[in-house]
Amino acid sequence: MSMKIRFLPDDVTVHAEVGEPILQVAERAGVFIPTGCLMGSCHACEVDIENGETICACITAVPAGIPQLTINLSVDDNW
Ligand code: FES
Prior knowledge:
mainly beta; Ubiquitin-like (UB roll); 1 helix; globular
């Protein structure tokens, strides 16, 4: 099953498969997500998703059951 992922603030939308790693989708979209440990512990890769939740992109896959997901990379602006 395929869905759309929209990356902000660049406003790039790409198609992604359910279960595909978010980092891989971002790379295909030409969007850069900083990473460190790739194990979910350093939080370098944190991004916001549309309900205000923060996820670690390195350990998160495209979720099932929704047609579109917005990922906001501008987390650092709020610090
Ligand atoms: S790269 Fe360290 S938590 Fe994702």
